[in-house]
Design goal:
The protein is α/β, with parallel strands linked by helices. The protein is built from 22 helices and 13 strands. The longest helix is centred in the middle third of the chain and has 30 residues.
Length: 566
């Protein structure tokens, strides 16, 4: 199925089956523009897009790649050409060619991504008829508390599919390094030394590259280094893969990158990995751009930003006389419930368009007042990530955990109120507070603008700042609580939320809400700028590339191999 000719997504779109959201998704797809050529620059896959000066705005460009196995398509992302590979279970038949010479896939770690990726790949290998040719093994540290969960998913020492980290690394042709960022930073010299010459190191996060850049280190020259980064938590990756067994193509989108191609086959190894995970479509990026957008994103609208928004608005509403439960419903519930559904099914601009006329003015006031208050902090955060300061703060904090372990936030008033609200929730009665909606959408649009100014493609922007929020993280927050996410996600994200949420909180209180109280007039350009933003067309294209499937989220724990609910 290899193709060196790029096929226009706009002119050759394949109608995918849908389970839900059909009418809403038709509305979103109707916004797509016709395919047009773009003068945006093309980057060769693996080349780093490095900005020398943080105040320089860089035009996003397509990351070029060639596949001998999978069909490359050209997608129109708001008038910019980007290249993608569309997924689907029918592509499992191409795994033997993409993974030629790979006999052992070693999944190192059992956190959020580990259980999901290990099980998805194993299921895909079985579906491709390769179970007797490729083995998925789990590598854990001695006496790991996760061993019991891995064994419950049928990875066992008895059959050789569960072993010690460095033993599994030494045996593997494809090493998927899914341990925590802090552990990667500490252990990477030993990990690289243990790998077989000619094997492939697979990363699902570019954090390690940032650490190595800070330390002036390089990857071994006799291995491939690739990235496949699902744009959602491990539980989402697993749940939607399972739903994809009924609706072909359902899953979590992923980005991929080739940092180092020693064997000449790294691109197809990476694309095969993404296909095996069940990605509806895979888009090209670089390791550097991935870790910038990912680490930045989780400090913004994905976690830290939404944490700061809801706590600041909860305080504001209760100070104005709203009772605590009503304030929670008008902050967290508004965002994780109806706003998330609207953005997921109809697009960001639909939040404004579907509001009652009497609420639209309040939305615009909150949007205008909050946009630059959010962008101020977002730009600072991005540049701290870009220049390595934020990565170093993570590794430094992890090194202090023996003396200063992270505490939890779930015991504070707002989050204890939230437990009661969720227990008594009636979905149809959740309000859409126009002020909350305006602040949330302002932060999302500000984050998009920062990423675009820093040179990120629309595929990366849409997936990291919109789709991952409304189709992965927010549904889990709705089921389990924002505090649960802040207390149980990766150390990197938890540290980021604790550091940046207060910054958003204070800036909104000091810069945005004071403007609301002062009754500042709305600039007439605010609405047109928002509604005419190019990201809406890009999101419509992204929506057309995968089926419409609501993720199934349990309220209680997922159990062993449920990839945990975080």
């Amino acid at each position: 199925m290899a193709s060196s000719m790029a096929t226009s997504v706009a002119s050759a779109a394949v109608v995918q089956p849908s389970v839900v959201r059909q009418t809403a998704n038709r509305n979103l797809k109707a916004n797509r523009s016709a395919f047009v050529s773009s003068s945006a620059p093309v980057l060769k896959l693996g080349a780093q897009s490095v900005q020398k000066r943080s105040n320089v705005v860089t035009m996003a460009g397509a990351v070029e790649f060639e596949s001998k196995i999978f069909t490359k398509e050209a997608a129109d992302m708001a008038g910019e050409v980007e290249y993608i590979v569309r997924g689907g279970r029918h592509l499992f038949a191409d795994l033997p060619k993409a993974w030629e010479g790979i006999k052992t896939v070693g999944v190192i770690g059992w956190g959020s991504q580990g259980p999901a990726q290990a099980q998805n790949i194993r299921d895909s290998i079985e579906a491709a008829g390769l179970a007797d040719q490729i083995t998925v093994k789990i590598g854990l540290r001695p006496n790991s508390a996760s061993a019991a969960e891995a064994e419950a998913c049928n990875f066992t020492e008895a059959d050789g599919t569960l072993g010690e980290v460095f033993e599994i690394i030494a045996q593997s042709d494809l090493v998927l390094l899914l341990i925590s960022d802090g552990a990667q930073a500490l252990m990477y010299p030993r990990i690289l030394a243990a790998m077989k010459p000619g094997s492939t190191l697979g990363l699902s996060h570019g954090f390690l590259l940032g650490v190595m850049k800070n330390e002036g280190a390089d990857f071994r020259s006799d291995i491939n280094v690739v990235l496949v980064a699902p744009k959602g938590m491990g539980p989402s990756v697993r749940r939607l893969y399972e739903q994809g067994k009924e609706t072909n193509g359902a899953g979590i989108n992923a980005s991929f990158a080739v940092q180092q191609d020693y064997t000449g086959t790294a691109t197809d190894i990476a694309l095969g990995w993404s296909v095996a995970l069940g990605s509806p479509f895979t888009f090209a990026t670089t390791l550097e751009m991935e870790y910038r957008s990912d680490i930045f994103g989780e400090r913004g609208i994905l976690l830290g930003g939404v944490h700061g928004i809801v706590e600041s608005l909860y305080n504001r509403y209760t100070n104005q006389g709203m009772d605590k439960e009503t304030a929670f419903k008008n902050t967290v519930e508004t965002i994780t419930g109806p706003l998330t559904k609207i953005i997921s099914t109809q697009g960001i601009d639909a939040v404004y368009k579907t509001l009652p006329e009497e609420d639209k003015a309040e939305f615009l006031k909150a949007y205008q007042a909050s946009f630059y208050a959010c962008k101020d902090i977002l730009m600072e955060c991005y540049e701290d990530v870009q220049h390595g300061a934020e990565l170093k703060s993570v590794t430094d904090a992890v090194a202090r955990f023996d003396k200063f372990p992270m505490g939890k936030i779930d015991g504070t008033e707002m989050w204890t109120v939230g437990e009661k609200v969720r227990a008594e929730r009636v979905e149809s009665e959740i309000p859409i507070n126009p002020t909350t909606a305006g602040v949330y959408v302002a932060m999302m649009m500000a984050q998009i603008e920062v990423l675009r100014e820093k040179g990120h493609n629309f595929s990366e922007v849409c997936n990291e700042s919109i789709i991952e929020a409304v189709d992965s993280l927010n549904p889990y927050m709705h089921a389990r609580g924002v505090a649960f996410m802040v207390d149980n996600c990766s150390n990197t994200a938890r540290l980021g939320s604790r550091k940046w949420a207060p910054r958003f909180h204070y800036n909104l209180m000091q810069q945005a809400y004071t403007k609301l109280d002062a009754g500042v007039e709305v600039d007439p350009e605010t609405l047109s700028t928002f509604l005419n933003a190019s990201v809406h067309k890009a999101m419509a294209t992204c929506s057309s590339l995968r089926p419409s499937v609501d993720i199934s989220v349990s309220v209680d724990g997922a159990g062993a191999g449920g990839a945990r609910n975080y």
